[in-house]
């Protein structure tokens, strides 16, 4: 839910677009229709509907229940709070984060296009990160969407024209063909967060989803890819994360690594430790400035409740933790690996509905293994002249794989 104060001048244009004439004025519709959208009383068909008689909570809830075909009561709010609090200590909650990873992927890509961040200097790092997503994104539809963008990247955002011709550079922004691509399929964005939902409108969300995406990638790469994954992650954050302070800090941590990673374990543990350093710093800042989410205070992670075997010793003097890094790595692999993709089973058990099964399969896929050959993706980055041929090979392989996958499912 979003609330807009039409008494503020800064919101005048927005309120005019929605023909707001009274207070309160309530609208109902799919979240994405509100982005850049509007409402006009003369418009005959619109997915945004004004709620005419929502003056009391009872009437409003009745109206919402009718729209959803549900029978929510006011007590259901209690469960939402339980969900929020369970979040940090219940290992099952991570399964919901698959939605947030998709949302974060879409948002990150949207920001890059909105802010015209693809330049001759940053283009290669986006391609490298797309390669990582194609191979290891935990959501099947994001792997597919990233692969489509990657395969067509040289046509959509040609490197030769970028530096000399500003008009052509527009093609690498939202206005160009790239803006028509849905990196995680048409279902995304949904306009809300699940695992990363804050207790306030302006907390958590995207940055939480981005961390979860990075951790989930770090536990999926092979030893031989670990240094490439490390570099791609560092460069991606450095070039495309919108928060200046975060970029600087994160790049500082990246630059402190002098010898290349040889093991996926080392990269996953490095990212975990870097995230904890951010948590430690923000815990102090948020406590003094009260800028954090009160339901999710920053803390060293994982808490003992999630992984007691990760803890060897905690110093009584300064609270410093001695970790069992083998256990931490095992925990990361299970939490961000299998834990993250258990949704399919969970949804099947809960609903038993065929439609939801199909949706779940779309989200997770049968395994998190490489769907698109990494070799093809790598080649795409360097061999733009062989682009058409590679795209053809890639598409044919995809078809074969799809065929194989469907045949296997039928066994
Ligand atoms: C790369 C990066 C750098 C950032 N740097 C800054 C910064 O310098 N200053 C700033 O103000 N904000 C920074 N942010 C944002 C900040 O870290 C949080 O994302 C934001 O405050 C929201 O916090 P959150 O409570 O949702 O938890 P987040 O810190 O976003 O964590 C998301 C989830 O990850 C899990 N998690 C927590 N710690 C770890 C860990 N160590 N290893 C694995 N999983 C973990 C938890 O389940 C948590 O719910 C950064 C974000 C990113 C992605």
Report on this model:
The chain is mostly helical. The protein folds into 3 domains: 9-74, no CATH class; 93-338, ERV/ALR sulfhydryl oxidase domain (Four Helix Bundle (Hemerythrin (Met), subunit A)); 382-411. Helix content is 54%, strand content 3%. The protein has 18 helices and 4 strands. The protein has helices spanning 12-17, 31-34, 57-68, 76-86, 97-114, 123-136, 140-156, 159-162, 166-169, 206-218, 226-240, 244-255, 264-289, 325-338, 343-351, 354-364, 374-382, 387-410; strands spanning 26-28, 49-51, 311-314, 321-323. The strands form 2 sheets. It has a two-stranded antiparallel sheet with strand order 1-2. A hairpin with a 6-residue loop joins strand 3 and strand 4 (321-323). The longest helix has 26 residues, at 264-289. The two termini are 45 Å apart. Mean pLDDT is 80; it is low at 81-86 and 366-411. The site of flavin-adenine dinucleotide has 22 residues, from helix 10, helix 12 and helix 13. Residues 199-301 form the ERV/ALR sulfhydryl oxidase domain. GO terms for molecular function: flavin-dependent sulfhydryl oxidase activity; protein disulfide isomerase activity.
